Amino acid sequence: MIWPLTMPFRNRGKPKSAAVAPARKSHSTGLIAAFGGLSGAQWSGRSYGTLAREGYMRNPVAHRAVRMISEAAASVPWVLFDDGRELDDHPLLSLLARPNPQRSGTELMEALYGHLLLSGNAFLEAVPSSDGTALQALHLLRPDRVRVIAGDDGWPVAHDYQAGSARRRTPVDPAAGRGLLHLRLFHPLDDHHGFAPLEAAQMALDLHNAAGTWNKALLDNSARPSGALVYQPKDGGNLTEDQYARLKAELEEGYQGAHRAGRPMLLEGGLDWKAMGLTPRDMDFIAAREGAARDIALAFGVPPMLIGIPGDLTYANYQEANRAFCRLTVLPLIARTAAALTGWIKPVYGETLKLDFDADRLPGLAGEREALWARIGAADFLSDAEKREAVGYGEL
Question: What whole-number distance in Å separates Cα of residue 379 and Cα of residue 324?
């Protein structure tokens, strides 16, 4: 007789008879149904709350990738131009440095980039001054609290923001230079919302989290896979209710738990242990987990080498990987944000203003900058004014 530990133990002490046979058949059928119900994979949802919890708050790879991108992008300072001339002092620069009393400019931009990476959308609200000639404050709204309202022609006409029981609607007016700025990443199947990079890595994210959960459960069970006790007495009898309860209690109290790992199991009276689970070697546990981590990093555009994932030989060294990360991931995200902010603030501050960024402040591009300066400095055929223009500086 084989008794899985999860199987109900009623009627175990009763003698064999015709009345007991249907009960055994029912138990066996229920066990088969339980195994059959787990044949399909269970995936987490794609809502902002689910991706934020399962990704940023529970998965170390996704958490590190989001922080690397958002912190690197938020560290790049803004540069403002008016008709091609760089401005050292302007109300917009002061607003971006301190958008509201609760947050600094770096904190606001870091949260904005985090919203884009986790939901594919970011909503920035502007509070105009009393005379309407400037912006008084900038506030970031959580993406899951904002709903895009489309008109009869399919274009957005308003945004609904709901926090608790409070709800307010902001009309969409591109010429007003106020209201909500909706930044979104490309979505092939949605006209009004963006596609989060973490959604593309959802299967890898669930696999990575499930592997960690399985490993923790295995360690809690003394690093032993699930199995069944086989009872084959010589006289063909069954265990009584008291014998089964005592055996189950001894297994739980004496052999389960990480601090009881390695303790030998003592079996008596025709009992034998049969393993019924796959080992980490059979499941290729380590390789599957590293592969899932690599997929998560690649979905965000972060070289796996920078997160400490082994086996990545795409880049010759760490410096080259960091340069690729800045050029291919961080700078395009900042450029997208700068272009959106420029179009948003022009109706308020003037059509000649352009918001840009100083990419030289990225540490990953310091090597490129040094090489450029060395080449320009050694070019004797260039004048000082031409050298300044070549490295991005204006005339004296």
Answer: 27
